[in-house]
Design brief:
Chain lengths: 50, 230
């Protein structure tokens, strides 16, 4: 039953988990950066309002 | 220093330490399973995904109930953030399950009751997030999503009971459960617990980061309303 080729499945499972988490964190960081930039731009516009 | 600041400072190092400890135990510390060989080590991360998934979707249910009762955007933000993370961990749980099933069951997927109910769970919370994304009227979208968020908790209960009620082929991993294959070596149980703790901490850390993004989005919405003179 035990087969060394099963190692591929083990590596694949952990790769999927870490890739998934990494992609999510990267996306979240990008969203945060974009929102922070947008807040700065909007604040400047608000400050310019009479 | 407030409790929130303290959590922000302690959570990242605690999560990283727990994750490194779990990886050490999984790949070096724990003995190999005599029957399944190396693929059994997938269980340690697979089970951890389900603890994070159940915590996240359970929190969605609670936040949804509180939103329907109080109508506070705070609960709506918590529900939405938690649903997003629940869907991430649920997707990873399904993926690791499929990868484990291929060499052990000889198939990537089977319509076992627990697996089927888990796929339904994934669909419920994917619908929750789609509803939020596509709603033209935010309050109405939040209300409908909250109803869906509460109803999804029923599926969580069914998934938990599925191995007892319908006798599918999905194994019960935890020892002492009826029909459980069990983790007989004490180090296997420790490894599973450390892995579950590590991914639970990761869930909490990501939740705090996602809630920060939600607060930034609220600030953008407020500033836009201010500019529009609302």
């Amino acid at each position: 039953m035990i087969d060394d080729s099963h190692l591929t499945y083990l590596i694949a499972a952990y790769a999927v988990v870490w890739l998934g988490v990494l992609l999510y964190v990267t996306g979240l960081a990008r969203r945060s950066r974009n929102l922070e930039r947008e807040i700065d731009e909007l604040r400047q516009l608000v400050d310019k309002q009479p | 220093m407030t409790a929130s600041n303290l959590t922000d400072r302690l959570l990242p190092p605690a999560t990283i330490t727990a994750l490194l400890g779990a990886l050490y135990l999984i790949f070096i510390g724990v003995p190999a399973d005599a029957v399944q060989g190396p693929v059994q080590r997938i269980f340690y991360v697979h089970m951890a995904m389900w603890l994070a998934t159940f915590s996240a979707f359970g929190l969605v249910g609670l936040a949804s109930l509180l939103y329907l009762w109080r109508r506070s955007p705070r609960w709506d933000n918590l529900g939405r953030a938690s649903a997003e993370l629940g869907l991430l961990f649920c997707s990873l749980g399904l993926a690791t399950g499929c990868i484990w099933a291929r060499p052990i069951w000889g198939t990537w997927w089977t319509w076992d009751p627990r697996l089927t109910l888990t796929l339904i769970l994934w669909m419920i919370y994917a619908a929750y997030l789609l509803l939020r994304a596509l709603a033209t009227e935010p309050t109405q979208g939040a209300t409908l999503a909250a109803i869906l968020g509460v109803s999804g908790v029923v599926d969580l209960y069914l998934i938990n009971r599925a191995v007892y009620w319908w006798r599918g082929i999905h194994p019960a991993v935890i020892v002492n459960r009826e029909g459980g294959s069990g983790l007989n070596d004490p180090l296997m149980r420790v490894t599973l617990l450390v892995s579950m703790l590590a991914f639970f901490l990761l869930f909490l850390w990501l939740l705090r980061l996602r809630l920060r993004t939600a607060r930034l989005q609220d600030a953008v919405d407020d500033l836009r309303a201010q500019l529009a003179g609302v």
